[in-house]
């Protein structure tokens, strides 16, 4: 939709006084005078403009009509809904981008949280919605809907994930180590080398 196209109408009549007229159904669109071939330029904005088209030639020998011609609308894929991050904190501002391969400028994008409509924008291939995640109910599922002349399509669901609170720091306990130390002189008995073994408790 929104694509520019061309239709060429040709005749074996070598007269320079051939009038070519283009019709969409019974509606007259354009008329040109030329030799053997003329080209008509159009834009397909909706499904009603896909056809049938017909060309009429008019010269000194009379009028003649071409066969019908119809365009086929390409089956465009569903829109895509994405965010630069899917892990968020409470109160965080986020953005969701909805993109479509439809080149029409008349695409309406609508954002939903579950079945609740949030925002609507009109644009080309991509729109961005800005939100704030205030509670767990606002993490999703989000869905984007596109609406144009060819119909409506929905994106896949998108969910944010709430970041987990920081884990408490682990406490590391050292293993006690006993070291022998020499007792002070007054703490030993006379005549003995050592009566007690002292230790320091270190961590």
From TrEMBL:
<dbReference type="InterPro" id="IPR013783">
    <property type="entry name" value="Ig-like_fold"/>
</dbReference>
<feature type="domain" description="Ig-like">
    <location>
        <begin position="77"/>
        <end position="161"/>
    </location>
</feature>
<dbReference type="InterPro" id="IPR036179">
    <property type="entry name" value="Ig-like_dom_sf"/>
</dbReference>
<dbReference type="Pfam" id="PF13895">
    <property type="entry name" value="Ig_2"/>
</dbReference>
<dbReference type="InterPro" id="IPR003599">
    <property type="entry name" value="Ig_sub"/>
</dbReference>
<protein>
    <submittedName>
        <fullName>Allergin-1</fullName>
    </submittedName>
</protein>
<dbReference type="InterPro" id="IPR007110">
    <property type="entry name" value="Ig-like_dom"/>
</dbReference>
<feature type="domain" description="Ig-like">
    <location>
        <begin position="1"/>
        <end position="72"/>
    </location>
</feature>
């Amino acid at each position: 939709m929104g694509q520019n196209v061309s239709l060429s109408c040709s005749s074996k009549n070598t007269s320079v006084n051939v009038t070519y007229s283009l019709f969409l159904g019974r509606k007259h669109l354009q008329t040109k005078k030329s030799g053997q071939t003329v080209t008509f330029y159009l834009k397909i904005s909706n499904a009603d403009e896909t056809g049938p088209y017909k060309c009429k030639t008019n010269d000194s020998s009379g009028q003649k009509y071409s066969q019908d011609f119809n365009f086929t609308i390409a089956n465009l894929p569903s829109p895509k809904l994405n965010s630069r991050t899917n892990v968020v904190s409470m109160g965080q501002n986020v953005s969701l981008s909805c993109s479509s391969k439809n080149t029409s400028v008349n695409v309406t994008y609508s954002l939903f949280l579950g079945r609740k409509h949030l925002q609507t924008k009109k644009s080309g291939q991509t729109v961005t919605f800005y939100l704030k995640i205030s509670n767990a109910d606002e993490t999703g599922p989000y869905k984007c809907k596109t609406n144009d002349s060819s119909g409506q399509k929905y994106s896949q669901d998108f969910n944010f994930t709430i970041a987990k609170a920081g884990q408490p720091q682990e406490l590391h306990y050292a293993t006690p180590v006993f070291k022998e130390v020499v007792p002070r002189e007054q703490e030993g008995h006379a005549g003995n080398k050592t009566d007690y073994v002292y230790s320091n408790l270190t961590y």
